[in-house]
Amino acid sequence: VPTYSPCRVAFGCGMSQTNRRVGFWLIGCFGSVSTTVAVGIAAIARGLMPTTGLSTTLPPLASLELDSLDHIVVGGHEIRKGDFYSAAHEIHKKSQIFSIPLLESIKADLDSWSGNIRPGLLVNAGVTIEQFSDQSVRPNNSLRAGILAIQKDIQDFQTRHHLDQVIMINIASTEAIFKDRPEYHSLETLNAAIDQDKRELLPSSSIYAYASIEAGYAFINFTPSLGASIPALQQLAIQRNVPIAGNDGKTGETLLKAALAPMFLARNLQVLSWVGHNILGAGDGQVLADPANKSSKIQTKDAILPAILGYKPQTHVSIEYIESMEGWKTAWDHIHFAGFLETKMTMQFTWQGCDSILAAPLVIDLARLVLHAHRRGESGVLDYLACYFKSPQGVTEHDFFKQVAKLHSYISQVER
Ligand SMILES: NC(=O)c1ccc[n+]([C@@H]2O[C@H](COP(=O)([O-])OP(=O)(O)OC[C@H]3O[C@@H](n4cnc5c(N)ncnc54)[C@H](O)[C@@H]3O)[C@@H](O)[C@H]2O)c1
């Protein structure tokens, strides 16, 4: 089997090196994004791939004391049986990304990390997600016991691998929308509801978030699911001195919206309508084909235009599952706008991307930045990370460039 020869780009290029060892605890390990995260960390750490796509390897972010990729250990929870190597092969076969020689060169890392995967938790997931599960999942007794089991898995992982820090990152399937409930509004009421084993109360993403934050681990929600976006969990994060960030990685069509809408505004071009049609395959596409799960995604994709433009043009967002697309996504956007003397014009773009290849570097960037924040004693919602999210917690600013400026201003404060 041919192996890659190191090193196209010297490993560590643009990265601050430290001796710390850190753990990435991924929820939904054998999904496309998580598997691509694992492949990416191993390939870059071994000097087999360049750091293209990782914003933390470029100035000014590279000036922060971030964790080196060869000091990361991967573990996590899944509701499906499997291992990283087989999952990566499957993705290669279906989506034509990675390469067999690359996967052979990092097989030892992937196999070792597969040994860190534990059965996940599945509560109120709905039939579309439940059908993925092929092993016994938590909670098998009470909600509280399920939380303790999740925490024990992470603590054992930390001890076994002598890790200085661990971060939980939710990259599991998108859950349906959970409406606001009185129990969400204070930690006291939430704790009481958990103790009463009210299982209908929270989706899995929020129970994972609770377990992580309560045990003192930072939490990132890369999905549109509820996660830690309820007041009670934000309160818990402050109380436990834990930083949190979310929701829903901004990787494709929404990234373009956030970058293009400020241009229309700056030139006083009035956006009359913005229609976005998205087609995608793979597991994410399959889950989003369920109208309940789809509505979570549409909500995060559709909210940003009025926030940037200051008025609400007619918008339409559609997401359709097209099986043959596998891990690839096409977005076609039609923007109808009025210019000088009320003349109507059109801009159209087509975005063709590989979903997991777009998402994985953001997950790695975010985890490195949030681990850094945790070491600095930051807690609660990290609003300066808004540029990475479609629906950033605690932020109403959706202009991509203003969000990036906020991140850069944070970096200059850290450096001062
Ligand atoms: N560009 C992108 O790919 C992108 C951008 C933003 C957000 N996201 C979000 O990231 C998530 C993952 O996307 P993907 O393409 O990897 O999806 P996927 O379907 O390939 O993977 C999801 C994985 O989560 C697992 N899972 C589901 N519920 C779980 C639970 N309760 N506990 C543990 N594991 C569970 C599934 O078994 C599956 O392996 C989705 O929510 C997606 O919307 C992706």
Characterization of the model:
- The chain is built from 15 helices and 11 strands.
- The strands form 2 sheets. It has a 7-stranded parallel beta sheet, sandwiched between helices.
- The relative contact order is 0.14.
- The radius of gyration is 21 Å and the shape is globular.
- Helices cover 40% and strands 18% of the residues.
- Bound molecules: nicotinamide-adenine-dinucleotide.
- Nicotinamide-adenine-dinucleotide binds next to helix 1, strand 2, helix 11 and helix 14.
Supply the number of helical segments: 15
Query: Termini, distance in Å?
Result: 50 Å
Q: Which term fits the overall shape?
A: globular
Structural class: alpha/beta
List its traits.
alpha/beta, 40% helix, seven-stranded parallel β-sheet
Strands, helices and their partners?
Layout: E1 22-27, H1 32-45, E2 72-78, H2 84-95, H3 100-105, H4 107-114, E3 117-119, H5 127-130, H6 143-160, E4 165-170, H7 187-195, H8 204-214, E5 218-221, H9 231-239, E6 243-246, H10 253-266, E7 270-280, H11 282-288, H12 291-302, H13 304-309, E8 314-321, E9 328-338, E10 344-354, H14 355-375, E11 380-381, H15 400-415
Helix pairs in contact: 1-2, 1-14, 6-8, 7-9
In short:
By secondary structure, the protein is α/β, with parallel strands linked by helices. It has helices at 32-45, 84-95, 100-105, 107-114, 127-130, 143-160, 187-195, 204-214, 231-239, 253-266, 282-288, 291-302, 304-309, 355-375, 400-415; strands at residues 22-27, 72-78, 117-119, 165-170, 218-221, 243-246, 270-280, 314-321, 328-338, 344-354, 380-381.
